[in-house]
UniProtKB/TrEMBL annotation:
Lineage: Bacteria, Bacillati, Actinomycetota, Actinomycetes, Propionibacteriales
Transcription is among the record's keywords: yes
RNA polymerase sigma factor 70 region 4 type domain residues: 98-150
Pfam families (alphabetical): Sigma70_r2, Sigma70_r4_2
Keywords assigned by UniProt, alphabetized: DNA-binding, Sigma factor, Transcription, Transcription regulation
Similarity remark: Belongs to the sigma-70 factor family. ECF subfamily.
NCBIfam families from the UniProt entry: SigE-fam_strep, sigma70-ECF
Name the record gives this protein: RNA polymerase sigma-70 factor (Sigma-E family)
CDD domains the record matches: Sigma70_r4
InterPro entries the UniProt entry points to: RNA_pol_sigma-70-like, RNA_pol_sigma-70_dom, RNA_pol_sigma-E_actinobac, RNA_pol_sigma70_r2, RNA_pol_sigma70_r4_t2, RNA_pol_sigma_r2, RNA_pol_sigma_r3/r4-like, WH-like_DNA-bd_sf
């Protein structure tokens, strides 16, 4: 597969992944572009990998996690959606809910990435562990903590709504 073919086939999927982890369409485009630039520089190595898409996804996820560590990237995802820039997808209808975005914004970047890879990308523990360079048990623990935080936020939201 040539690089141009890969971009045509998987480019929008990378943007959706970037959007789902960051909550910001412009940041998602930047993440996809950075991942594709890095993949292009090493295209022979990427193309010859067992799963080139896995390789590029890992670049994107690592770049997102690196961005969150930088001082200039301290704000939470905004999920400021522009209908012209969203790609129709069955999961988008669920993920776009304002309550969900607010709850996801309370999670750490790593927790958000693990949940996105697990439930949006439908990846197993071992694949997520490979992408993040951690152990599968760490993936499970992070998933458990993140889901507990979301449940707590949901319960808190219900209590606050009841007080109004």
């Amino acid at each position: 597969m040539e690089f141009e073919e890969y971009v045509s086939a998987r480019g929008q999927e990378l943007v959706r992944l970037g959007f789902t982890v960051s909550g910001d369409y412009q940041r998602a485009e930047d993440l996809a572009q950075i991942a594709l630039m890095q993949a292009f520089r090493k295209w022979r190595k990427v193309r010859d990998a067992d799963d080139p898409h896995h390789y590029v996804r890992r670049i994107l996820v690592n770049e997102y996690l690196s961005m969150t560590r930088r001082r200039s990237f301290s704000e939470a995802p905004t999920a400021d959606l522009d209908p012209q820039h969203t790609v129709p997808d069955h999961a988008t209808g669920i993920a776009v809910s304002d309550d969900l975005w607010q709850a996801l914004a309370t999670l750490s970047a790593r927790e958000r990435v693990v949940l996105v890879l697990r439930y949006y990308q439908d990846l197993d523990d071992q694949t997520i562990a490979d992408l993040l360079g951690i152990k599968p048990s760490s993936v499970r623990a992070t998933t458990s903590r993140a889901l507990a935080s979301l449940r707590k936020a949901r319960t808190s939201h219900r209590v606050n709504e009841g007080l109004k």
